[in-house]
Amino acid sequence: MFKWLHPLAKPETLYHFCGRLFPWLMLSAIGILLFGNLWGLVFAPQDYQQFDTVRIIYIHVPSALLSMSTYTMMAIAAFIALVWQVKVAQWSVLAIAPIGAVFTAISLLTGMAWGKPMWGTWWEWDARLTSQLILLFLYLGVIALYGAFSDRQTGGKVASLLAVIGIVNIPIIHFSVEWWNTLHQGASITKFDTPSVHPSMLWPLLISLLGFYLLMLALVCLRLRTAILEHEQHRPWVRATLGGH
Amino acid sequence: MQFDSFSDFLAMGGYGFYIWLAYGLTYGLLIGLVVYCFWEVKAFHQNFRQKLARAQRIKQYQEAEHR
Q1: Average pLDDT, chain A
Q2: Fewer CB within 10 Å of terminal CB in chain A, N or C?
């Protein structure tokens, strides 16, 4: 695997690799996401306790899971950037951060729109909600720290350090519903057991999740390409690729 | 199909406001993010072309001066 992975550390190779992946990822993301969401909105049954509000699950759960796995991905890239000083790993930290921040914001906002009719409140300082809000601040912190240094190299290092330290929040979010008495319900899918969701709701949920996942990967490819060009614009290969002399 | 009519679908059993609010915000943010990512690509290419053209003009000017 490493023999296959290693050439991708070279910016030029990674630029073309992401370029080949992007159209497939983007088109399949749009198709699968719309398919999953429409299934959830129109064909999936109501919940016997939450009625039609349960349909928010098809965007809330995928965006919440994605906010965490995107963070994990960013933290791994940051770790690689700090330990092995791989340039493209550091650039990808900053390419990933805004995408993860948007997914986190979506999970919080959809959660609020679900909480108001079911819990009777838009917001509660509950362990799950608070730790998820901290995740949003971590993403924004990574972006802001990078921007705070006039030297991109230093900014990238400091932002990577914050991304690695912030990974401690991920298990806290995941287990918050078990460790504390929360208003938020427990896990129904991400547990070491068969999911406690009926297939008629589980399938549209898993398809929506796949759609969100593909969209995240597509956008990371796109932003990473822009970041590579931005950092390498004075190199001959960029001029050769973009056709100018 | 879980709904009898389109207005039934929009009403969502009385919870329409919350459900469409959630979906509206989600798709609004996602479309905004996608547009922003494409705008970044366009902005880079524009900027890059401008820089190249400027370098070319400077080169031409210098060559003309030394003639």
Answers
A1: 93
A2: N
